[in-house]
Structure formats: C-alpha cells, structure tokens
Sequence to fold (303 residues):
Amino acid sequence: MHQFLPYAWFQGKCVPFEEAKVSIATHALHYGTGAFGGMRAIPDPQNPNTVLLFRPDRHARRLCQSARLLLTELREEVVLNALELFIKANKPDSPIYLRPFVYTSDLGIAPRLHNIETDFLIYGLELGDYLSPEGVSCRISSWTRQEDRSLPLRGKISGAYITSSLAKTEAVQSGFDEALLLNSRGKVSEASGMNLFLVRDGQLITPGVDQDILEGITRSSVMEIAKRMGMEVVERPVDKTELFIADEVFLTGTAAKITPIRKLEATILDSERPIMNSLRARLNSITEGRDSDYEDWICRIKL
Ligand SMILES: Cc1ncc(COP(=O)(O)O)c(C=O)c1O
Fold:
C-alpha cells in the first residue's frame, strides 16, 4: 500500500488528499488525455528543515511541454510555485515521489483537446527503491514502443502508458522484473518507465532521441555527469544483440534512479559494473546535495 502525503494540490490550492476527488465522467479518465511528471524530493541529510528537489526546473519544463502537446497552456512558474507550496504543506520527513498531472478535467464524452476545461494537480507518496538497486531481470517485450508519428512521445502522455502497463505486466507474469521495448524499426527503445544505457569498450551508449524514447531527465543528467567525468558518450541506435554482449547495461529514471540489469532473457550479464557504479555514486551525492559542482541541479525548499 502506498503512503500518500496528507495534502494534494488540486484546483489551484492545497487541500487534504482525501478531498481531492474527480468525477467518474472526467474526460481524461476515459481518453488518456493527460500528461504527468514524476519527481523525487528528500529531506536534506545535512539540514532537517530543508527539502531537496532534483532539477525541478527541468521537470516543470517537460511537464509544460507535455501540456503544449495536449494543446493546453501550463506555465512553468505555476508548476514551480505549486510544488513549493505543496512541499511546505506536506513537510516530508522521508524520501517522496511527486506526481504533477495536467489533464482534461471537463466532464463528458467526445475525444478532443479543444473547447475543454483542464486542471493541474499534484499528489505525492513516500517512495524508497522502485526497483532493486542490486539489479533486475528483463525480458524483451512482445509489445512495441509507440511511434512519434502516432503519439507525441516527447511528452509524458498518460494514454501512452497502456503500452508500458502491458509490457510490465507481461514481464512480471512471465517471471521477470522489467520489460525492454523495441521500437517499430526493431531497435532498442527503453524500459516500461526508464531509459537504457550500455557500456561497450569504455564507451557509454544510449538510444538517441530519435529512437522513440521519452527524453528522460535522469538520462540527460547521467550523460552530462559522464561527459564531465571524461567519458565518451554516444547516442545511437542500439541493436538487441548488443545488450547481451555489453560490458554493462543499466536503466535510468526518476523512480528507478540507476538500476543495473543483471539478467536479460536467459542470459546472466556481467556483475562487474565499474562505470555504472561511478555514475551512480556521483548521482547519489548530487541528489543528496553533497556535490558542490552540481549545486544548480538542486533546489532547496525551507519548510
Ligand atoms: C517511459 C519512460 N521512459 C523514461 C523515463 C525516465 O525519465 P526521467 O528520468 O525523467 O524520470 C520515464 C520516467 O518517468 C518513463 O516513464
């Protein structure tokens, strides 16, 4: 069971979580016409009255871009202001996951994005590890990642998560932890809710933004950290078979952080992961506010 935070942001203000309710006729509930974000916040280990948010500017920007793809206007200042008031109301004392959501809040039928009321809400829950930090087993999904020409994949559009849900459940019901999806051209795209990296001969490789991926904020952060550490980072199409012979394969995402893949289909992958380990240690120190080189990635909210 999730432990939800006591207050939600709903219809422009903080209200008790139990009071933030929508009608069964809510348009987005039927048509998937919403877009969401996912962020983490932790109490500052060095200062109990402060909460640390990781790159809220980037998260707010992606959410507003997702809203634009749904022909809805949402301003970054509105998101950032609501996030701050939400954190101050909830005063979290353990790591939390925040779920901002913009959606067609009108009641009734007819799939459309014009002449329709929209709303923006936030709720939160306590969240430790989403996937085991020791590593996960993955299968190649029988489901194909959608194409950008049929769905705006640069946004985190709710309706798109039917494919993630089918892939995740298929993976779990067939004895795996997670699913890897190929795109319609047969190249590796991403996992059900994470981006993918592999290491071959010291080179850090990840499918490019033209491979029908979600443009993950953890992904771009990991790429930047790796470059600043002097690693060679390459964005290119990735074939399925490369994953089996890679030196390291790992997933990145706000919920999953950096999670290694330890088994792919029936193949056990190498458990030595020096590059992933160094990136993970660096990302952890950044998100915990211990890395002065990346101060600008952390927003400190005083309670
Ligand atoms: C489909 C998908 N890909 C990738 C990611 C990783 O994105 P981020 O690092 O911004 O959390 C997510 C997470 O939200 C996702 O849902």
